[in-house]
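Quick one: Glycoside hydrolase family 43 protein from Limisphaera ngatamarikiensis, structure tokens please.
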Amino acid sequence: MALRAGEAFLFTSFRGNGESGLHLLWSTNGYHWTALRNDRPFLRPEVGGYRLMRDPCIAQGPDGTFHMVWTTAWTTDRGAEIGYASSRDLIQWTPQRALRLMQHEPKTRNLWAPELFYDRRKGRWLVFWSSTIPGRFPETDDTGDDGYNHRIYMTTTRDFVHFTPTRLFFDPGFNVIDATLLEVPGGYLLVFKDERLRPLQKRLRIAFATDPEGPFGPVSDPISIDWAEGPSALRIGSEYLIYYDRYSRKRYYGALRSHDLRHWEDVSQEMRFPPGHQHGTVFRVSRAILERLLALE
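--- reply ---
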């Protein structure tokens, strides 16, 4: 698992219900993770009717700026938005903004687990998340929890001020949440949670595309245990790792490993995470960035 020169990894995280804000973990091998700042938050939530910062996703753009989006609420009863902020160093952040990306769908129940992916070929960002629009997919309305019936929606932006019209991003024909993207040789890997309760799935699956905006397929068989969610993917040398919440297990956080993107083994026992780590995204940073964050201890 040789690192490229000067490379390190960070993992976003939240605690509890997301009230405390952004927490960060660090690692130099992708297996052993330590909380930064003694697990004190780096940024506290200031937008959204519930003032939560759940499922934080950070990605770095080609100019070095870090962009973050997050879930601000369980439901849209106090506003249908996701949170956004940016930073050059992960310490000082721009004022937080609420991105109202589903205003054209006033019946939307939720905007969950937003993710970012930079499309190098088109020079723009993909922003995508899970939403339920009641009655939109009636054939699967009875398969989820509490009437939720999600699909993945998306928009694109170059500046996080102007956005293309929101559209359906991924519909595998069933209830689906928590999608994440990783560029791989020959295309793009989409990892997501099959959210069906009836019949019980709640497992991770994958699909491939030659374009980051899809279409993705075919959908794989489940690659994880049941009651798994919140995947985030990373390549380290010849290994592909998918980290995920094992939220019904005593050992809360886990990971899958593959060398060919087809065969996956559970390597959760090889992982070390601090207590309370929940649904974040993993990304590379320079050693200089990591050293400045470590100096905050």
